[in-house]
Each structure stands twice: as C-alpha cells, then as structure tokens.
Amino acid sequence: MTATTHFTGDANPYGGGDPYADYRTADLPFTHLVDLADRRLGAGVIAANDEFFAERENLLKPEPAHFDPEHFGHKGKIMDGWETRRRRGVSAAQPHPAAEDHDWALVRLGAPGVVRGIVVDTAHFRGNYPQAVSVEGVSLPGSPSPEDLLAPDVKWTTLVPRTAVGGHAANGFAVDAAQRFTHLRVGQHPDGGIARLRVYGEVAPDPAWLTALGTFDLVALENGGRVEDASDRFYSPATNTIQPGRSRKMDDGWETRRRRDRGNDWIHYHLVEEAEIRAVEIDTAYLKGNAAGWASLSARDTGSDDWTEVLPRTRLQPDTNHRFVLPEAVRAAEVRIDIYPDGGISRLRLFGSLTGPGAARLTARHVELGG
Description:
This protein has three helices and 22 strands. By secondary structure, it is mainly beta. The protein is globular and about 80 Å long.
C-alpha cells in the first residue's frame, strides 16, 4: 500500500460561500477504474457500531457530499456522511479513549474485485473527522451476515493500515493486494465522520456463476467488462454505458460534446473474457435531442490488431432501446462502438457466452486471486 496523496490536520472552519472552495484534493492515479462500492452495482453498508449523528448509508451515495450550514436536528448538526458520537474513556481518572478504541463499518462491495485504490473523503468534516482511518478486506462466499463477517475465525487482509488523515479532504490510498475481495471493514480512530467512501478496482466475477448463466451480458461492469478508452468524456463517463439496469436520466448515460469537424465519437471495451457474441442492445434512453444519429459495432479477438465490423452503420432513434440478433455468433475479446457524428448512448449490452479458452483463463484468474 502506497499513499499517493496525503492530508492531515483540521481544515479551516466554514466561513461562508462555496463550501468546496477550500476542499483539499488532488489527481489520483486510480479513479478511472470502476468504483466497486457503487450502489448501482449493489454495494451497501451492512453494519456499523455507531451512527449517532449521521447514517452509515451516506458513505456510498454517488453524488458529492452536500453541506447545509443551517441544517440541525435534535442530535445536533446534520452531516451528509457517516458520523459517530464522541468517544469517552472509562472514568473521570481516564477520560480519554484507549489507543485501540475505534468505530467501524462493514461494506459489501457491489461487485467482488481487486482493489487498486481507496478514497476516504472527509468533505465538510473540518474538525470532526477521524484522527486516522484503516481499511481491511475479506472474501467470503454467498451473502454473509455481519455476524458471519465479525466471527473470530474470519481472517481480514489490511488494505490501508491505520493512517492519519485530514479534514475536508479526499484522502487517497493506492492499494497493492492482488486478491479478490467481497467485503471491507472501515475503521475510524477513535471516532468522527467520513463523508464518502470510494473503492476503485477491477471486477473479478465468479466463473461458476457466469457458467451457470450460460448466456449473459459480456460487457457489463458487474460481469467484469470494462471501458478501455473513449474519444470524449465531456458530459459523462463512458463507463455509464455498462452500468446495471436502464438509464434513469440523461446524465446516467454517455454524452459527448458537439463535434464541429467531420469525425465521429467511439468507445473501446474489453469483454470479461473471450466470448461469442450473439445479440446486441444499444439503448438511447433519455437522450432525445442529443442521441447519436447512427452507430456501428466492430470486434476483434484475443491477440488480433484488426477490427471486424459486426453491425454496420445503423440509424438510431432517440430515447429507444434497439435490439439486433447477429446472423452468426462473433468470437471476440474486445468491442468498439462508433457513433456518428456525436451525441450519446445510454447503454450497450452484448449477449453471448464464453469460449472454452476464455472460460479457462477466467477460472485460472479466479483461483489466482484466492476465489
């Protein structure tokens, strides 16, 4: 584990105006990866030892933390994050908490995977953030309860050792642990508040589950698909196109800036592994005056540099889900969608099944990661 950007100490008290004006942050090398703790993937905060001032579920909200200086309740200032009460010692003679005293929360990742970086965001917690944080990971099958996770025989792996952090800051940590994790245990020492938790990494699906499904979405984030590159991310990230479910609003898809040249926009994807694609969905839900005019799809197999057209340039309708059954199965490991000339799509679905070699490599990787 290597800390890439490090903040410590209090932030200044809020003095009015934009509360993010003095927010401490920096570019982090892993934030382009999938947030494995995204609620849209099914992540959740399943338990916490204390949430007196603010609920644990706030940790995984997708939007940045909001601050309202006038928002108070019966328990005090209401914060958009997870905040525990102040810890105390055992007696008047020992009023301070012991060195090992701390608060914790258990997080179920939305998709099991390899963690490459973690952001513990203390936005708006200026003097009431934890002195230090720690993060541990574990991989357990099924749907373990909090009691299962906290059992004495469960062995946790340290991802972020107890490390001092700063208030009102994006505290970033690079993680070097080549293992597959399903759950995290977040500690704040000794107490305080954390606004948001982001867990960046690579999805590592269960091959047995995908084999049982047979035909599934080969490019979906939750199944291990990923975006390799895109021509434009001006309004929204290309990764939105492989999120679970249908888009629910315009910025839940991928939209590019308006082109003023004769080119076109595109996204390059990696499938979960080598597979045979049999059907395609291109959805433009909620993109009405800004949907792509046309789209084409190309594919290439493992080790190949040549793209083969799978779907010729085809007219798209606004706010519509388009379905295409391919004349024959297409063997591929990578796919590229080109849209013309610009605009956006909300989702891309590629339905098919793994090839024998693809399934074998996925299983070997699963074993290698401790699955």
